[in-house]
Amino acid sequence: MRGAGLKQPPIVLVDDEEEILFSSRTQLRLAGIEPVATIKDGRELLNFIETHGAAMVVLDLMMPHCTGEELLKQLQQRFPEIQIIIMTANQDIDRAVACIKEGASDYLVKPVENSRFIAAIRQLLEVRRLRQEVGTLKEALFSEHPTHNKAFADILTQSKAMLRVFQYVEAIAHSQEPVLVMGETGVGKELLVQAIHQSSGRSGALVSVNVAGLDDTMFSDTLFGHKKGAYSGATENRKGLISQAQGGSLFLDEIGDLKPTSQVKLLRLIQDRRYYPLGADLAQQTDARILCATHRDLNPLMKDNQFRPDLFFRLSSHQVTIPPLRERKEDLPLLTRFFLQEASENLKKPVPPLPHEMFNLLYAYDFPGNIRELRSMLHDALARHESGTLTLTSLKGATGHRATINPFEAPPQMTFHGRLPTIQEAEEFLITSALERTHGNKSLAASLLGITRQTLNNKLRKQEE
User: Fold this and answer.
1) Fold of the domain built from segment(s) 328-402
2) What class does CATH assign to 423-464?
3) Pairing mode of beta strands 179-182, 106-109
4) Could you give the CA distance from residue 347 to residue 340 in angstroms, rounded to a whole number?
5) Using one digit for the tens of pLDDT, what is the confidence trace for 345-372?
6) Measuring CA to CA, how many Å separate 349 from each of 27, 335, 387?
7) pTM to 2 decimals?
8) 11-136 and 143-323 share one CATH topology?
C-alpha cells in the first residue's frame, strides 16, 4: 500500500494486479491529477479510508480475499458520500447494472483507453467539487453572522453589499477554480484579489501581472518563461510567473484587454493545468489558482469576437462584482476619516476639524473614479489646507459640476397651499426625506438635517412612540 500521510483526500486505486495499479497511477499523474493512493489487498481499503479519507475509489471486481462487489456494499454503508468507479475485465452487462444499482458511479471495462479513464475521473471529481461548493455556499450565504476573516482587514466598509461579497469569497476560498473579479475603476479589485488569496490558505505567493498591452510573445514569455536559445537574446533559462506562483495564485489584471491569441493559451493552461516554456518540448505542470480582474464589461467584447466565450466561462467559475462607491455611500464617513488620517501621516499635518457641509458635498457626488478618486480628493484637500476648519474649495471644484445635489445652494423657497403643516408634521417630512436621500444612512441624514445622529435617533424614537 502506498499513499500514507497525504494532506488531501486521495483517489484510491484498488486492484490485485501491480501492473494495473502502476499504469493507472502514472496516467493520472501525467494528467495532473493527484494525490493518488494504491491498494493491492482490498481488505486494507476501509481502514485506509478511515485514516486518510478518499476523494474517489476505483475498484476492481475480481480480487482474492475480498471481492469488489463486497467492498462496494461496505463502502456504500460506511462512506456513502464517496464516489466509486468499477474497473474490471468482466463484460457481464447484468453485473454492471447491478453495481450501478448498488451505488457505483461508473463501470469501465479493461483494457480502458487512457482518454476514457481520465475523462471518467475528471467528471466525478468535478461532481464532487460542485457538491462541496454548493454546501459551503449555502452555509456561508445563508449565515446571519458577519465575517471576521482577517483577510478583509484592509477593505474598509460597513456596507451590507460588501459584507455579502466577503461571505461569498469565504465560501469559495478553498476552491481550485478561477475567480473573475469585476468592477469599475477604483473600486478596490486588487485588494479583494489579495483577500481571496489570503483566505485560500495557499502556501505559495500571490503573483500579479497586468496583461493590458502585452503582445502574444511577451504574454507567453512573461507567464511561461523560456529556455536558453528560444529566441534571439534568450541567453539563459528564465522561469515565468506561473512557475513563481506554484502552490499559490496567479493574478491577471485587466483580463479584458488580453489579445485573442493569448486567450487561447490561457484557456489551455486552465483546462490542462500544463504549459510549455518558449523553446521547450516538455510540458510543465502547475497547481496555481488563476485570479482575474477587469473593469470592462466582457459581454460586448464577446459579441464583437474580441473575447472568447469559452475562456469567459472558464474564468468565471466564480464571479464577484464589487459595487461602485455611489451604491455604498454609507462607507463615505469611514473612508473619509481613514484617508484624511493617511494624508495627515504622509504630509506631516494634523487632521483639521471637518466642516458640517463636507459629507453633504461628498454624498451628493457620484464618484466616477470611486474610492481611488475619493482618496485623491481628500489628500489634495489636506495638502491645500492652511489653518482652521478644512477648506472645501478643492472638493467643490472637483465635484460641483457633476454633483447630483448641490448642498450649498440657497435654501429652497417653500410655499404651502391649504392648511399649513404643523411643526411636528414638517419635522417628520424632513426626516423621512433625508433618510430617503441617504438610502437609510442615519449619519448622512443627520448631516443633511443639520443635527447630530443622536438627536436624529431621539426624534425617530419619539415618532415610534
Assistant:
1) Helicase, Ruva Protein; domain 3 (1.10.8)
2) mainly alpha
3) unpaired
4) 10
5) 999 999 888 887 788 788 888 899 999 9
6) 65, 18, 10
7) 0.67
8) yes
CATH placement of domain 143-323: 3.40.50.300
Rg over CA atoms, the chain: 30
Is residue 45 classed as helix, strand or coil in its secondary structure?
helix
Strand 289-294 to strand 249-253: parallel, antiparallel, or no bridges (unpaired)? parallel
> One-letter amino acid identity for 458?
N
Per residue in 221-264, pLDDT tens?
A: 999 999 888 888 888 888 999 999 999 999 999 999 999 999 99
Cell for 89? 475485465
Domain extent listing, the chain:
11-136, 143-323, 328-402, 423-464
**Alpha-carbon torsion angle 398, 400, 404, 410, nearest 10:** 150
Query: Can you read off the three cell numbers belonging to residue 267?
Result: 484557456
Cell numbers at 225, concatenated: 518563461
pLDDT at 340 over 90: yes
The residue assigned the cell 490561457 is 266
Report which residue type is found at 59: L
Cβ atoms within 10 Å, residue 377: 21
The SS3 assignment for 290 reads strand
Q: At what angle do helices 442-449 and 423-437 cross, to 10 degrees?
A: 130
Domain covering 11-136, topology: Rossmann fold (3.40.50)
Strands 284-285 and 274-275, bridge-based pairing: antiparallel
* Strands 318-321 and 206-210, bridge-based pairing: unpaired
